[in-house]
Amino acid sequence: MPSAWADVALGAKAVSIPGLKMQDVQARLGEDGQGGLRLTLRASKAEVPAMGWRRVGVDVQGTLQRDIHMRWLFDGAVQLAGAPGGALGNATVGMIIDEAANTLEIDFSQGQAQATTALPLDQPTHAQISLKGVPVLWLQGLLSTVWSGRATAGKLDADIALDMAEKGIQASGQFALSGAGFDTPSGTLAGQGVNGNGRLNIDSTGTPSRIDLDASLRGGELLLGPIFAHLPDHPVQLSLAAAAQGGAIDLTRLRVADADALQLDGAMAFNAKGDLQRLKLDRLQSRFPAAYQRYGQAWLATLGLRDMRIEGQLNGSIDMGSNGLRSFAFETEGLDVEDGSGHLSTKGLRGGLDWAADGDRPATTLAWQSLQVYRMANGASQSRWQSRDGALSLQRGLDVPVLNGRARIGDFEWRPAAVKGRRLSTSVTFTGIDMAAFSRAMGWPEFPGTLGGAIPALRWFDDRVELDGGLSVNVFDGFVDITRLSLQGPFSPSPVLTADVQLRQLDLAAMTSVFDFGNITGRLDGSIDELRLVNWNPVAFKASLLAGGGGRISQRAVNNLTAVGGGGAAAGLQGAVLKLFKTFGYKRIGLNCTLQASVCHMSGLENEADGYTIVEGSGLPRLQVIGHQTQVDWPTLVRRLKSAIEGNGPEVH
């Protein structure tokens, strides 16, 4: 006689079994009319602490029946509300309970995602889990138990052994990722579009939690602190061991092997705020340009080195702590480097450097075939270096060919670990630097002459470079002396240069011919005091120019001086007479400009009722050029000067 079931309804405020807690539980079991049982189970809140699940709503419905082997079979649907990553929001579920075999097997399916879990009935805290096409976001809860990061994208296949303890889990197994993404609140660890496979071990039962990963990755992007990787299509081996606690993470082992670009062993650590606490890279082997394109581009850009072109190889190591550098070393058998801005370029770099913040390091040799700094081409040279007590020093003076002349670097001491105080000191002398070559390098009109001088002491103090002594430029048969030179933020986007400049007996005929201003003879003296350049553009100075010995001036030069001062020559009959002459005698020429707040305050030799005298004539016809504008917008003045020296005629506004 067939048995009959009456509907059974159960309710409980809380149900707790190892690894699972449920609140407000409602269950109903009754006949489904087809020889089976209909099961409905609902819970307003479910918690699986080991999986990082909190306040998850549960709704399970399906049929329950026994098969010929006396196993209980369940087929139905499960809907979880509030599970991390939207896991099992609308899934089918199949379950087999085999008391004889002491096993429980559960199969979930949602879309293309499938998950199978098998566990012993007498030890439900141990499970074998198989995942296929599962969204990585579904594992967000589990990930949250061991680190502060979050999954953002991707699919996962995996076979995992999972043990849930009272505090934490232990999990290990094989996995395969497709298009995976993740990030951290600090943004120091992240990835997107990553593909790969490998083995993962997680243990959160102790403090700190521990993670071991051995993976082969292909494609996508990966950020590990200062290392931003554009992963290639071929496999890159990544191996790491990490300890995570309270949002901080310590990568005690980090190994990367990309056959044709980069290999390294090292360690890395971040505090809970994401600040780098340690970076130690040993046995760093890099081959360019692949190493730059895949791993170095973003990091070098933070140092102001963009659009680099690098060829060759470089081996080395680096050790950084939260307070800065501790040591670095590198060696190369051949390296060519050029940055996109033209500020730095070297070819045929050979040798290396070896520095440490403490103790002494062996001496090294560094040589190059050519070196270019700020468009200044330097010839081949070889240097000898040694690190002692945190200072990297030249062991002997260094002669460097520069623009057909020479620069000699004397005592040189650099303290790479210093972030305050004295960071670098040296002395430099220049002899026979070709000003024509210098002009071409700077993109200026070419003019003859030589540059020479001595800087008895150059000091990099805090974020400022200061020079004692000065530079003397022998140009236009006279001298330009530069003193009190300093440079603030030399490697910042907007460096600030200050200096005083003295002009002594410059030949105006040579000078005006080079700049195509119109011919003037005589000698020019003057000064440009309190000069201030921001990002190499003038923002302030006090300039005073005087040709006090007399000479000749052409009609075109008169017109250009008139335009600069916003004034005019004599009018009426005298003006008509002046137009008959190509050149004029003058007694003095004087022009002053004080630049402040983008306005140039102009003056000249003498103040007149309606302006100031720029040119005081001599002889007949009598020439007098008066400037009427005492305040001129600096961009306007620059346009006038540019128009004058380019031979386009004066521009007056």
Question: Describe it for me?
Answer:
By secondary structure, the chain is mainly beta. Among the domains are: 1-124, no CATH class; 476-645, no CATH class. It has seven helices and 44 strands. A hairpin with a 3-residue loop joins strand 17 and strand 18. It is elongated and about 130 Å long.
Secondary-structure blueprint:
Elements (H helix, E strand, L loop, with lengths): L7 E10 L2 E12 L5 E12 L4 E14 L5 E10 L9 E8 L4 E8 L2 E8 L5 E10 L4 H5 L5 E15 L4 E15 L5 E15 L5 E10 L2 E4 L2 E4 L5 E10 L2 E11 L3 E9 L5 E13 L1 H13 L6 E13 L2 E15 L5 E13 L7 E5 L1 E4 L2 E3 L2 E8 L2 E4 L3 E5 L2 E10 L7 E13 H8 L6 E13 L2 E12 L2 E11 L7 E12 H8 L7 E12 L2 E11 L3 E4 H11 L2 E2 L2 H7 L4 E14 L2 E6 L2 E2 L2 E7 L6 E4 L3 E3 H12 L8
Antiparallel strand pairs: 1-2, 2-3, 3-4, 4-5, 5-6, 6-7, 7-8, 8-9, 9-10, 10-11, 11-12, 12-13, 12-14, 13-16, 14-15, 16-17, 17-18, 18-19, 19-20, 20-21, 21-22, 22-23, 22-24, 23-26, 24-25, 26-27, 27-29, 28-29, 29-30, 30-31, 31-32, 32-33, 33-34, 34-35, 35-36, 36-39, 37-39, 38-43, 39-40, 39-42, ...
Quick gist of this model?
The chain is mainly beta.
Major β-sheet, in short? 44 strands, antiparallel
**Mean pLDDT over all positions:** 87
Residue windows where pLDDT falls under 50 for at least 5 positions: 568-574, 649-653
Number of strands: 44
End-to-end C-alpha gap: 114 Å
Question: What share of the residues lie within helices?
Answer: under 10%
Q: What class, by secondary structure content? A: mainly beta
Number of helices: 7
Q: Give the overall silhouette.
A: elongated
Q: What is the radius of gyration?
A: 39 Å
In what range is the share of β-strand residues?
A: over 45%
